[in-house]
Structures are given as structure tokens and as C-alpha cells.
Amino acid sequence: MKSGRGIRFIFLSAAIISLWAAAQFEPPATRMRNEYKLMSRPAEEGVPPEYILTNALLGGFRGLFLTSLWIRAQDMKNDGKFFEMVDIYNLITKLEPYYANAWAFQAWDLAFNVSVEYQQNLSDRVYWVFRGMELLRNQGIPKNPDEPRLYSELAWIFFFKIGKDMDDAYLLYRQVLARQMSRVMLGTGTKEELSFINKMIAQYPSKEALLASAEHAQVIQTLTADGFDPFTQPDKVFTTSNPAVAELHKNENTRARLQEIAAWVVGQRITNELHMDPAVMLELNERFGNINWMLPQAHSLYWGWLGQKAWDRQHPDEITLTHERMIYFSLIMFAYRGQSYSSPTGAVYGAPDYSFIDSICKYMDERIAFYKKAHDEGKFSSNLTGVMSGYTNFLRSAVFNAYLEGNRDKAKEILAQLKEKSGFPENYSMPLDQFIEKEFSEWIMDMSRDQAIGMVAQYTLNAWRALASQDDKEYQYQHNWAEYLQRYCDKRWNKKDNPNEVRIDYQIPPLEDLEVMTAIQVLTGEVPLGPYDNRGIFAQILSTKRPALWKRIERELQQRMAQNALTPTGQTEQGQGAQQSANEQNNPK
């Protein structure tokens, strides 16, 4: 009897000691659980009941159950059953919707691994790349808005998979992205457009608020009665071939209401379809310049920017370069190809936009100063060698590009900056022409396709400037350089080693396509011709010297004029410039 009581006493004492020990470990265990997000969250709707029940009953062994699902998904991928694999991925994210690593891995797997399995079917390759991108943008990030890694992974897909030329289908990815953005935004997303859109969203936060405005409601009723819904077809607001819409456009007041309705709908589409914030887009435009949102680097910049903000929220006392790199890599890409051009084949090409150079330098100087200060205060241990090297390489390219653009003063200015900021002033203490000669000989063998396209476009632009100045000798010189470089690039990148190889045509665009693009930039005032900006003379000479090319340019200008309706004034400055050049060409003084 005594023996039984003794045993019970021992067990009771052990239980009390165990409870006391557990109580001591509970606070640090809770902190670790919160830090590493080890909490079990409820599954989302749409999960089969048997999986929810199994997941719940397994308790501490639920990790093994999820691991078995991961293994099953990989088995499906190895067997080429990609849609079945995606079904299992969807199940995993529904069971663990707040596990960021699951979203990041799946998106990367679809965009980079599954897509390349479709070597002979480019449309399927596009499907999987955009499936991975949309998985993060439309689902993962909205469910985990404070997870910096998800923003970084999404920015990387835009920057590397769509923006870079490492994949044979990169031009097709850009074309699909440009089409999507054009359908949603009805424009390229200039500061003026985004300001107008944000104003309308702020003024009318809901559809009900917009309909409560009698003037807007009347216009919407007129459009609906004529057979289309402006909330689903905002582009038709500008189709003046429709009698009812044409009648509304005749009146200044109703025309303004049409533009406001379209801007409001575009704002809703940006928010609900692209899962982006028009206010953040405007913030980036105002800070860095007129960003073309048709381009992939605009999106890598956007998501990298939000990733940095998410990191700062989660780790206010910890500094990292992870998201910073994506921001300045994206900005540098704008200088290299910040303007887009669609050829008659539909391919989207990038051309240099040197207007970003000043804002990039300002941003880099600010961030380097910030990191140096943090390093001096002991808050940042990484060295800035990589950052400084990237900045130096960018400035070297900027000197070269400004020189090719014909802006020697700007090139000298940047070369002076390069000498000051590089840390190796002796490497850049040389005349501008000597520096350019050295850079060209080194760079031409080490350039990417997009850089090559930018160089050909720059020579073409220089040729147009010479033509406008009626300098036939310089025009021929620049044109010959463009032809030579384009032929060299064509041989290097467009050649098919295998006749059965599936590639996209025009990896390097025809010279005529780039000539049309740069001529339109000149005629619309996007790029200045020179100190006198004599676009009328340029148009007259070009139409005489290159009549076939001029016909193509006229068709492109007419298409552009038809797309200028989104801005509040009904006509952009570029549209006005194009019209003025056309008038000057038809009625030369």
C-alpha cells in the first residue's frame, strides 16, 4: 500500500516538475514560433474535406503530410504531368496559405523550370512563365503582404525572365506583357495619366459613388443604351465612329465626363486585375521620370520597391542590399532601353532613354551615402564593392551612350563624375574621344542583344540629326555605322545553327524597324533633333530621300494620333508634335 502511494507521489512530482519546466520554456518557444511563423493557420475554402480532416488529425505530424504532398508534386513534374502538379501545389498553398516559401518555390518552379520543358511550343512556354508570375502577384503577395521574399521573387521574374534576353522567347514574353498592360491601362502610364487616374479614384472610391454623380450617371446611361458597358469596355469611350459616342464628344462637358469615367475604370483595373497600386506607380513616375509601364523593368522596379518597404516594416533595424539591387538594376535598364517600340511583326523592342541618367545618379548617390553612414555607425557590415562596381559600370556606359547620342557636353560631364566616383581616377583621366575609342573596342565584343539594338538605334538617331542639319556627309557616315553594326549583330544572334530550331524571328530587328522608331521619336518631340529642333525640314528631306520609309512612318504616326485620347486634354504633347511635323511637311515654308 505504501509502495503504491510512493509511486503515485513520484509520478505526481514528475508531472509538476514537467509543467513547471514547460512554463519556463513557453515564452521563448512562443517568440521563436512567431519569429519563424510556425503557427498553424486555418486552411482556405475549396480544400477537399478529407485533406482538411487529415491535416487536422495529424497534429504535430502534419509536416510529414505536407512533405508527402511536395514529393508527390515533384513526381508529377518528373512524369511531365504539369497540370496535375499544379493541382497539388494549389492544395499545399490552400492548406498553408501563409507559408511564404511555398508560394516562392512554386512561382520559381513554374516560370523557370516548367516553362523550359516546352522548347517546341512557345505559347505554352509563355503560359507557364505568366502562370508563375500571376501566382505571386494575384495570390501569394495579397495573402502575405509583409513577406519581402515574395516581392523579390516576383521582381526577379519580371527582370530576368521577361526583361532579359537569356530565353529565346523573351521577345514574346515582352509582347504579351505589353498587350496586357495596354488592354488594362489604355496608355503607357505617364505622370499625367496616373495623376488623372488617382484623382478619379480618390474622388469616387466606389462604383456607387461614381453613379451618384448625376452627370456621370447620365453619360453612362447613354453609353449603355447604345449597346456597351463603359465599365467593361472603357476603350470604346474613345471610339468616335460610334454615333452616340461621337455626339457626346461634341460637347466639352460630356467629353470630360467620358474621360473621367475611362480613367476611373482604368484605376479599378490596375487595382483588381494587376493587383498594383496606382498611387505607388505615380510615386515612382514622379521620383524617377516618365516610366513606360509596358516594359518589364517597370514591374521589377515596382515590386522591388514594395519589397524594400516590406523589409523595412519587418526588419527596421536590419539593412540589406537584396531589394536595393533590384531597384537600381531596374533603373539602369531604363537608361539602356526605357523606350519601347512594336515592329510590324508585333515584337516589342527596347531603345535607350537617357533622360533617366540624372535620376539614376541622384538615387545611387543618395543610397551609397546612406549605406556608408550606416556602416560608419556599425549598423551595416557589408562592403559596398559590388554596389560601387555596378555604379561605375553604369557611368561608363552612360558616357558612351551620351557620346553616341551626339551630346558631347553630357558625355564629358558624366566622365568627370566617373573619374570622381570610381575610386580610380587615373583610369579615367583621358580625353573623351580616347575614352570612347577604348570603350568601344572592349564593349562591342561583350555586349548583350539589347545593348546592341540600343547602339544601332543610336547611330540611326544620329543619322536623322545629320539629315535634319542637311549634312549629307555626316548622315551617310552615321547610317553606314548603323548598317555595319546591325549586320554584325544579325549574323551573331539571328543565325540558326540548327535548321529545325524553333526561334522567334527578328531577335535583332531589321534596320528599317529601328529607323522608323527613331524617326517617330524625333517627329513627335520625344527626342530632340538638336539646338534648332527643325522637325519640319527633317520631315521634308526624309520624305524626299526615303519615300518608302516615309510612308511607313506616316502610317505609324496616324496610329499614334488615334491613341492620344486618355489624357484630360484629349491630345498629348507628342500627338501635337506629330501633327505639327506632318503639317510642316505638307506645307513647307
Helix-strand blueprint:
Layout (H helix, E strand, L loop, with lengths): L1 H34 L13 H9 L4 H17 L3 H14 L4 H15 L7 H22 L4 H16 L6 H16 L5 H13 L3 H5 L2 H12 L17 H8 L1 H21 L5 H11 L7 H19 L7 H16 L1 E4 L5 E4 L5 H20 L8 H20 L3 H14 L10 H12 L5 H20 L3 H22 L17 H13 L11 H11 L1 H15 L11 H14 L3
Antiparallel strand pairs: 1-2
Model description:
With 589 residues, the protein is an all-alpha fold. It has a two-stranded antiparallel sheet with strand order 1-2. It has helices at residues 2-35, 49-57, 62-78, 82-95, 100-114, 122-143, 148-163, 170-185, 191-203, 207-211, 214-225, 243-250, 252-272, 278-288, 296-314, 322-337, 357-376, 385-404, 408-421, 432-443, 449-468, 472-493, 511-523, 535-545, 547-561, 573-586; strands at 339-342, 348-351. The longest helix is centred in the N-terminal third of the chain and has 34 residues, at 2-35. It is globular. Helix 6 (122-143) packs antiparallel against helix 7 (148-163) and helix 7 packs antiparallel against helix 15 (296-314). The protein is built from 26 helices and 2 strands. It starts with a helix and ends with a helix.
